[in-house]
Amino acid sequence: MAKDVVLEVGRLRKELKKHGAEEKILLDLLDAVGEQDIDRQVLKDTGIGKTVAKLAKDDRSAVAARAKQLLEKLKNLAKAGKGDKKVPTLDRQSSTSSVNMFSATEPDTPSASATNEAPEESGNADAPASKAKLEKVPLPADPKRKRTCDLIQAIFAEDEKSYSKEHIINVSAHIELAMCNEFGASTANYKQKYRQLKSNFNLNKSLKERVLTGNLLGDVLVKMSNEELLSEDKAEANRKYEEEVFNSARQDWLDSKREDMMKAVGINIQGGMYTCSRCGSKKTTHYQKQTRSADEPMTVFVQCTKCPNRWRC
């Protein structure tokens, strides 16, 4: 029953946004929303309160008045259900206050967004992060998925001195469940993500620590790209390599355009003392530099203006 109400209210919300310029249709839709059996959970799942709050500021007095009446009714429903006990969920959906439910700012999606932060621990604020507790997740009944949990658990085997075996099993179950939700059980992407995580866990110890302490949740971990999973040192090395490749490509481009640039400033090279061994052109430039001891002859550096070839003799 509740699912049908969510679907119907969601449909009405879309219609309200679609017919924003037609007053009669808006009034009928607002009446239809008021006839629905709406509770606090439906408000959170559909975001209808924010849509109605926006219409309450409409320039048309009839629409604004009808929307304000409905908004007051929805606020009373939200307050009435505020004392209901919240059921914990794996993705830790953030609880939405009645103020946020009726904010005039429209969300991108009607459902509440999941937070990436681990829940705060009660008690001593100075307690080590290793004592952070995740929600208990049962191991999957599917033998293939159970095997994946065992493989993930084996990655954390060396950390059993710092963390209990029960905690490591629970972390492994969280990661496997997130992989299953994101890619489907035992699919090619599911297997590829496991191999990617295994490789990065072995190379990046800080990544393992963030996962074990609960600072990085499984549903966030499985969506991270390979670059985001790298350690800081490896990421910096990759950045420097990409910069070197870019600079090299830029230098090659400058070398290939050297003759055109020289002509643009009035320098026309007819021929040089050296012939390029790559393209056979005689249009070369050269300069000398003392690279050895003073009693040795100078080294000649030659640059071809037709191609990127450079050499010394």
Explain how this protein is built.
Keywords: Metal-binding, Nucleus, Zinc, Zinc-finger. Residues 144-257 form the TFIIS central domain. InterPro entries: TF_IIS-typ, TFIIS/LEDGF_dom_sf, TFIIS_cen_dom, TFIIS_cen_dom_sf, TFIIS_N, Znf_TFIIS. GO terms for molecular function: nucleic acid binding; zinc ion binding. The protein is mainly α and 313 residues long. The chain has 4 domains: 1-80, Conserved domain common to transcription factors TFIIS, elongin A, CRSP70 (Transcription Elongation Factor S-II, Chain A); 143-229; 231-266; 270-312, N-terminal domain of TfIIb (Single Sheet), CATH 2.20.25. It is 52% helix and 5% strand. It has helices spanning 2-18, 23-34, 40-46, 48-55, 61-80, 98-101, 143-155, 165-183, 188-203, 205-212, 218-221, 226-229, 232-256, 258-264, and strands at 284-289, 299-304, 310-312. It has a 3-stranded antiparallel β-sheet, with no helix packed on it. It is flat, with a radius of gyration of 33 Å. Residues 83-99 and 105-131 have low confidence and may be disordered.
Quick tags:
4 domains, 313 residues, three-stranded antiparallel β-sheet, Transcription Elongation Factor S-II, Chain A, flat, mainly alpha
